[in-house]
Design goal:
This protein has 307 residues and is an alpha/beta fold. The protein folds into two domains: 69 residues; 223 residues, TIM Barrel (Alpha-Beta Barrel). The protein contains ten helices and twelve strands. The protein is globular and about 50 Å long.
Length: 307
């Protein structure tokens, strides 16, 4: 990390008592912290504020306070965590989105909702682990001629290379869901966060000759800092505009419920998130595709995304 030193000169303070000098020095240190940005560095003194003013000679009328500023390696952007969410709407309406969640995404050209004037759907699956349904999902997609995106983790890729190869060979997008599926803002070391992304990226490139370009933040959690890092690494962050609680394999509510949840909240420009571990999703996928096409919707690849 870069280090730089700033010198703050304190002049003509001999007439002020020690307590006042001590408080003044603390104030100066605080002001310096604000100026350089508390979120982008750590300010520390090489000796206490009191000693910096007085040292061993209390007769000193002019002294130097040396402050060392340690800057973060990649960015001074906010790392305040955004946990993606929205209010779902029926009757073909797009969800209600909060600006505090969308503004960081827009700033870094992320994907979460497409053109609201066009009946376009972008189908995506999260693949944290394999539960026995991905092959069936791929069969259905091939039968219906639909291209989807599959966001995978490192354990998934290593344990299911034949499925990953099939995704690639059949024209689907394989997206990055990080190595270990952490909350990205909680990985505060920039280099470790980059490794969460590039460790999987490089493994897939080496073993499948495939270059990943889309990233889905685990748990839907991100910050300006993580979005910037992802973009700098060549990635487009992908969120979603429709989803339901389908990830709990012990709480599957049946194919009728799954179909209803998908169809009821569909809208133009939808980025649909489904979890491939869901038996219900695998069961109803073909019917859902047919029903949505009958309603006038069509499926597109993220490579064809329209804002």
């Amino acid at each position: 990390m870069k280090r730089k030193k700033q010198l703050i000169r304190v002049l003509n303070l001999s007439h002020i008592n020690k307590k006042t000098l001590f408080m003044l020095c603390l104030l100066l240190a605080g002001l310096c912290c604000i100026l350089v940005g508390c979120g982008s560095g750590i300010i520390k003194s090489n000796k206490t504020a009191y000693d910096a003013i007085h040292g061993e000679d209390e007769e000193t009328t002019s002294s130097l306070l040396e402050i060392e500023v340690i800057e973060t390696a990649a960015t001074n952007l906010s790392n305040a965590k955004c946990a993606w969410g929205f209010r779902r709407m029926k009757e073909g309406k797009a969800p209600e989105l909060a600006s505090q969640f969308t503004e960081p995404l827009d700033k870094f050209d992320a994907i979460y909702l497409g053109n609201s004037n066009e009946p376009m759907i972008y189908l995506t699956f999260d693949e944290g682990y394999e539960n026995g349904y991905s092959a069936s999902i791929l069969d259905t997609l091939k039968e219906k001629d639909v291209t989807a995106a599959f966001f995978v983790t490192m354990p998934y890729v290593k344990q299911n290379p034949e499925l990953v190869r099939r995704m690639i060979d059949e024209g689907h997008i394989v997206g990055n869901h990080t190595v270990n599926h952490p909350s990205m803002p909680e990985v505060t070391d920039d280099e470790k966060l980059k490794q969460e992304i590039m460790g999987l990226h490089d493994y897939v490139k080496e073993n499948f000759d495939y270059e990943m370009t889309y990233l889905r933040p685990p748990k839907g959690e991100y910050s300006e800092r993580t979005l910037k890092i992802a973009k700098d690494l060549g990635y487009t962050t992908v969120m979603w505009s429709s989803a339901y609680a389908d990830w709990d394999v012990k709480n599957q509510k049946g194919s009728d419920y799954a179909k209803q949840m998908i169809l009821d909240y569909m809208h133009n420009g939808c980025v649909l998130l489904l979890h491939a571990v869901s038996k219900d999703n695998a069961t109803v996928l073909g019917d859902v595709i047919d029903s949505l096409r009958n309603k006038g919707y069509e499926f597109y690849s993220l490579d064809e995304f329209e804002r």
